[in-house]
Recover the amino acids of this structure.
């Protein structure tokens, strides 16, 4: 990818001005929501609502056409019926816009020959004039740092800016990934919903993110491609540059049939995709939760390569059964739970004694907790310092801790855990399952996430994310 | 199991009186927490705290020994050091107690020959006198209807009584299952944490629950057994009588090693266990979340046998990618996503038109939503009425619905969904993922659960639960 082309795509995420065509004063219309979202998110460029009826929206003048806008238009968001797209393209060209993104659906994904013909027409007109198309059938660009929310979301929520960037062939998956991100402190640099990608496609954005200095981690949801070789090359280069996590939708017969109707993708078989992703050096995940889990883990801990895990199944009670299940979850995913060194066991014996406790790994720390917070903290430090383990996985059940220890002691323990990443070099993963103390659990999750600790809802998901990220070739 | 023996075990869950030995006036001690929990949960029998030092606790007199208690003692909760257990057993026998449950750990699970010898001694003394032991190394009985919470939990939370009963070799797993239950409206009849089960064991309670009229669904967490043939027979009979869901901890090498230290269980290999569970007609699950998911599904929908699933990936946006992923999740678990009948498609075409929508299954209902709530509801009714599908799975993203539809319309849609089970014979499963509108999501979850709808956090977990429960032989 030439520097020129890279600079071109930068303007997708940092356009100087955005026109929203189809933004009437009816707040229920998507175009109106787009305008409201840009304003709410603090987009600092010019916003130009456009609708034939004119009027105003949120204090902004609605222009009756693109040509009526006095200033330059760099980026056009089009929320118009399919029958109007060709005319709109001509208007974009006349206005010298650089990009147009089409929310509009009803093209090749319907399987109709008219839809396919319309896409060919659109592409031809745009190409001749050097106008680039995003979509159709997409919700387009996303850039928290630029104040651009994803899609027609009036509240304009973007979450904090960060260095995770994503590409999605599904607007819904992209939207849900952003919502997960906001809730779980995944901080995004950029995102793009590419839809049917008749012009700018997944490969273009993979190439761009591979070189983008603000992007450190890449995620993508793919359904299919019309240019497999090119996609492979882009994936290979992106994966070599940065951890790249891929969710392929339509792995199964039913999923593939649904994908055909969704984005018109002709999906290859699952083994072919898996082999391709593996060969490209990408991390393959199987559902949206795994995608979010891997992005979070990479953001919080960097590209870990872990095989040997230390497990602590509970901080209040013994956590014995949780430790057993956690060990199963690690082994299920190809991770090992090695015994601790004998010196570590001796130190633990001094600290917490032997009765009723498991000292090999997993470690039952409940006797330490009975001896007070200092002993519990020192016990966790000792476990983390054993070089037999490369990563420490702790399950904390806030509801059970409240029952056994009370609210205050639970808070003290979490204050210690939040300092843990600064105190030790051993990466820490916390498992914080749902339960009957939900509001407290959410508070703890916020605290630990803010401290740079990845938090997962179950041992199984934590183990899977660690294993998936660690599979990435060196 | 004789009627007499069944009646015997009934008193484990409905004892007329409970003595808690080791209940000093120090509220941090487990015994004191046990007493507080029984009071808070409204246990209506007599509670007798016992501790050598005497004093009072929560307004109750602390007796200095079991023999000092004036009334009969039917059930003893023992939170005493291992060195005191033999003496306590003698006191229980002298007091003619029927059951004693030992919280005390430090027996065979430590792998020491002293621990094993002590267990043999305990069992011999108890057997001679007809006293039954629960544990040691356990948190014992649980019965919401009797006001008996699980373990030393001062708040005494039990959740609403219901007809799910469970057995667990791990107190931590049992505790977490109850917390999940409280949060997810799994209503328990009875539960028992059996620990090392040197006397009353998993088979005894399986037999009891198989006949217990208040129990309709059975769940269990097992690590191992010393009497495989007997366990198999109990499982077979229980599974034939009621859906019986089994989580076997220690399936893997690491898990099995942890289980050895935890409850002293000598685990067989995973394939041997799987074959045994399958042959017994039990439903095998692989982690605690799957156990809770299956119990919830069975409670809300009964013993469904579903192969053909209808999917709706989103109620606000198209949900296209979610539909694709949901289809993958169904196929992954052996479920099919069959096309709808052509008459259904015609009715949908009338209702929502074709443009940009998927009408085959999964169904993209977003165009219906654009036409208003009535159209959306009717669309869901039409899909559910198609006899090609046996169960309808809807993903609802509350955060995204708030963005696209607003809070009020989201509320109206959920009011409709809550009426759905009364309006149609097609079982409904709702997927309600976490995200950035957590407090609203929890409200919706409560509402749907209360309406008898099983709610899951992801399509993958919903599909897995449906498939697992449906595998049960007819």
């Amino acid at each position: 990818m030439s520097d020129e082309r890279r600079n071109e795509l930068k303007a997708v995420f940092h356009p100087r001005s955005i026109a929203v065509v189809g933004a009437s004063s009816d707040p229920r219309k998507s175009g109106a929501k787009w305008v409201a979202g840009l304003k709410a998110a603090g987009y600092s460029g010019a916003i130009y609502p456009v609708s034939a009826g004119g009027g105003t929206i949120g204090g902004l003048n609605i222009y009756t056409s693109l040509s009526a806008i006095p200033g330059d238009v760099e980026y056009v968001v089009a929320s118009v019926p399919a029958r109007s797209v060709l005319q709109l393209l001509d208007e974009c060209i006349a206005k010298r816009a650089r990009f147009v993104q089409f929310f509009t659906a009803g093209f090749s994904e319907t399987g109709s020959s008219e839809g396919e013909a319309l896409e060919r027409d659109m592409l031809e007109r745009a190409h001749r004039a050097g106008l680039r198309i995003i979509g159709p059938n997409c919700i387009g660009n996303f850039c928290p740092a630029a104040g651009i929310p994803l899609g027609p979301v009036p509240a304009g929520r973007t979450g904090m800016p960060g260095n995770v960037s994503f590409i999605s062939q599904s607007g819904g998956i992209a939207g849900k990934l952003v919502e997960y991100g906001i809730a779980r402190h995944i901080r995004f640099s950029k995102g793009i919903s590419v839809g049917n990608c008749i012009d700018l496609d997944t490969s273009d954005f993979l190439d761009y993110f591979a070189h983008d200095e603000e992007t450190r981690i890449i995620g993508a949801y793919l359904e299919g491609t019309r240019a497999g070789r090119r996609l492979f090359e882009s994936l290979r280069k992106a994966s070599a540059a940065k951890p790249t996590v891929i969710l392929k939708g339509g792995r199964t017969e039913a999923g593939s049939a649904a994908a055909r109707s969704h984005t018109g993708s002709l999906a290859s078989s699952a083994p072919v995709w898996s082999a391709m992703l593996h060969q490209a050096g990408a991390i393959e995940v199987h559902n949206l939760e795994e995608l979010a889990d891997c992005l979070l883990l990479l953001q919080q801990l960097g590209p870990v390569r872990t095989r040997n895990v230390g497990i602590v199944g509970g901080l209040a009670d013994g956590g014995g059964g949780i430790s057993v299940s956690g060990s199963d979850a690690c082994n299920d995913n190809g991770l090992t739970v090695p015994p601790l060194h004998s010196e570590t066991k001796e130190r633990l014996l001094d600290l917490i004694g032997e009765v009723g406790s498991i000292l090999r790994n997993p470690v039952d720390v409940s006797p330490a907790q009975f001896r007070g917070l200092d002993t519990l903290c020192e016990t966790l430090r000792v476990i983390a310092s054993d070089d037999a383990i490369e990563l420490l996985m702790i399950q904390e059940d806030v509801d059970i801790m409240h029952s056994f220890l009370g609210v205050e002691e639970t808070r003290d323990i979490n204050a210690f855990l939040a300092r843990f990443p600064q105190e030790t070099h051993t990466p820490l993963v916390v498992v914080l399952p749902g339960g009957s103390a939900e509001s407290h659990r959410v508070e703890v999750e916020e605290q630990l996430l803010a401290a740079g600790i990845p938090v997962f809802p179950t041992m199984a998901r934590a183990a899977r994310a660690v294993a998936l990220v660690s599979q990435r070739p060196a």
